[in-house]
Design brief:
By secondary structure, the chain is of the alpha+beta class. The chain folds into two domains: 7-74 and 139-320, BirA Bifunctional Protein, domain 2, CATH 3.30.930; 352-444, Rossmann fold (3-Layer(aba) Sandwich). The protein has helices at residues 7-19, 43-60, 76-82, 84-87, 153-157, 160-167, 212-229, 277-286, 312-323, 363-376, 390-400, 412-415, 436-444; strands at 23-25, 37-39, 65-67, 73-74, 89-94, 101-103, 126-129, 132-135, 145-148, 173-182, 197-207, 237-241, 253-261, 264-275, 292-294, 299-301, 304-311, 324-330, 337-343, 354-358, 382-384, 404-408, 417-422, 428-432. The strands form seven sheets. The protein has a seven-stranded mixed sheet, sandwiched between helices. It has a five-stranded mixed sheet with strand order 21-20-22-23-24, sandwiched between helices. The longest helix is centred in the N-terminal third of the chain and has 18 residues, at 43-60.
């Protein structure tokens, strides 16, 4: 990706997502529903792979982090304690001419309406709470109010004592969670980047207060490197520390991992030092003691919390943007030039790892093709496609980001071998079926 934003890339990726089954507008047959999207057959695999890669890095490969899956619905007491009922707001303005509403701090020109162009037409900014409220039970009323969580973090804080007592962990240790959150955004946009329903990948890392600064720096660098390791170019990423006026009410320090999107630099993940704010608030409001007793030091303390919080959906979008490439190549088998669109995903992120492609739909090729597919499916997510010319099927797999295509041809019937095509180089190797699994495993390195 170039060092400057590429506005044209946005439309290219959005069109590819619809055409190839990554993302569809939600409720499209009813005209769509603003800022909501459905992930199609390919997109759901991409999103799952992003979440699996995060979980692998944050939980599976560590000895000091455990996971939970907390409830989406929560009583008002949790959000009163956390400060969300009073502080989780954005500044809202209305245009008096066109009646559109905007988030005031995101306007390019605070004097000009971006919708109708009217000048000096905005109302005074007012605070708008972003939480979705609903009711539990058959009777609506103040006693039945509940909220859809705007973040997954609070479920981990209110379960701190449960996890501490059952997991045999002690600070420094973390609690990780992946799940849906809901924010009533004033101005959602930029495709799946900012939506009202989204998935988060968050971890709360509980540390002795004296070690908070060290762990904050550790997680900033560790999380930045995760994106690089999975294929996003380093020059398309940066770590930006928040200014004092940007900090949330609970944070003494926050840095964002930012990606160079087509519209400019924007946040992928925030790493925050939340101090002991959340545990202290829940201790005071619930009446439960949430201190940790350090037997070695003979002291009690409320741990500080370092929080890496990423958006799964916007991370998937960043991987799509970073992987997108166009090039002029020789038409395979004909020597003529043609444009090629390819998603150069890291194998761990790619929706399909392998595509199995019989050269034709003739029955004598279908049987060995299904045999090859059945050998690979226990190990990789595979696609199977037997329609259209083989060159067109290669191009389709390029646009899906599939690292390897396995072609079963008429020679397979006699030599018991297949052709393995590499997505990035388009090089082709003849590989015996009996050694195919090992051949692919060595190259995918999952």
């Amino acid at each position: 990706m170039p060092a400057a934003p590429d506005p044209a890339l946005f439309d290219k990726v959005v069109n590819l997502c619809k055409r190839r089954g990554f993302v569809f507008p939600s409720a499209e047959i009813y005209g769509g529903f603003r800022s909501t999207y459905d992930y199609g057959p390919v997109g759901v695999l991409l999103l799952r792979n992003v979440k699996d890669a995060w979980w692998r890095s944050m939980v599976q490969l560590r000895h000091d982090v455990v996971g939970i899956d907390a409830a989406i619905l929560s009583p008002p007491a949790i959000w009163e304690a956390s400060g969300h009922l009073t502080n989780f707001t954005d500044p809202l303005v209305d245009c008096r001419v066109c009646r559109e509403r905007f988030r005031f701090d995101k306007l390019e020109d605070p004097e000009v309406c971006p919708n109708c162009g009217a000048e000096h037409s905005f109302t005074e900014a007012r605070r708008f709470n972003l939480m979705f409220k609903t009711y539990a039970g058959p009777v609506e009323g103040a006693g039945a109010e509940v909220y859809l969580r705007p973040e997954t973090a609070q479920g981990m804080f209110v379960n701190f004592k449960n996890v501490l007592e059952t997991s045999r962990k002690r600070p420094p240790f973390g609690i990780a969670q992946i799940g849906k959150s809901f924010r009533n955004e004033i101005t959602p946009g930029n495709f799946v980047f900012r939506t009202r329903e989204f998935e988060q990948m968050e971890m709360e890392y509980f540390v002795p207060p004296a070690e908070a600064d060290r762990w904050y720096e550790y997680w900033c660098q560790t999380r930045l490197q995760w994106y690089v390791d999975l294929g996003i170019p380093a020059d398309s990423l940066r770590l930006r520390a928040h200014d004092a006026d940007e900090l949330s009410h609970y944070s003494t320090g926050t840095s964002d991992v930012e990606f160079l999107f087509p519209w400019g630099w924007d946040e992928l993940e925030g790493i925050a030092n939340r101090t002991d704010y959340d545990l202290r608030q829940h201790e005071e409001h619930s009446g439960e003691r949430l201190e940790y007793f350090d037997q070695a030091a003979g002291e009690r303390y409320l741990p500080y919390v370092i929080e890496p919080a990423a958006g799964a959906t916007r991370t998937a979008m960043a991987f799509l943007m970073a992987a997108y490439d166009e090039e002029e190549v020789a038409r395979e088998g004909q020597g003529q030039g043609e444009p090629r669109t390819v998603l150069r995903f890291h194998p761990r992120i790619a929706p399909y790892k392998v595509a199995v492609l019989p050269l034709s739909k003739k029955p004598e090729l279908q049987e060995p093709a299904i045999d090859v597919l059945s050998r690979l499916q226990p190990h990789f997510m595979c696609d199977y496609d037997e329609t259209q010319a083989i060159g067109r099927r290669y191009r389709r797999q390029d646009e899906l980001g599939t690292p390897y295509c396995v072609t079963i041809d008429f020679d397979t019937l006699t030599d018991k071998a297949v052709t393995v095509r590499d997505r990035d180089s388009m090089a082709q190797d003849r590989v015996p079926i009996e050694g195919l699994l090992e051949h692919l495993q060595a190259r995918l390195d999952l």
